[in-house]
Specification:
Length: 103
Amino acid sequence: MPCWTRTRRVKVLVDTGYQGLAKTHPGQVTAPPLKLRPGAPPARQAAWEAERKHQSSQRIPVEHAIAELKWWRQLQRFTGRRELLPETIDAVAGLVSDRMITW
């Protein structure tokens, strides 16, 4: 299967810094709703806040996983070859997983 057909099925939740990516890849990349302009009706403000919190709560497990990996000194300032980063992350994730099981 060609690479581009596999990546079309990938769905990503991103933070507000990736609004442009969400616009160029609708249905694939989901960013939080844009901030409302001042003076928006209270009902719209409540709906916006609920939508923002829902999207944020879906991203929390991923953000925590990334943060835990960054606790490891080897990943804080990775200066190795870019091709080796996935293997390094897998190794650190394995160590984290083993640590969580034995504690």
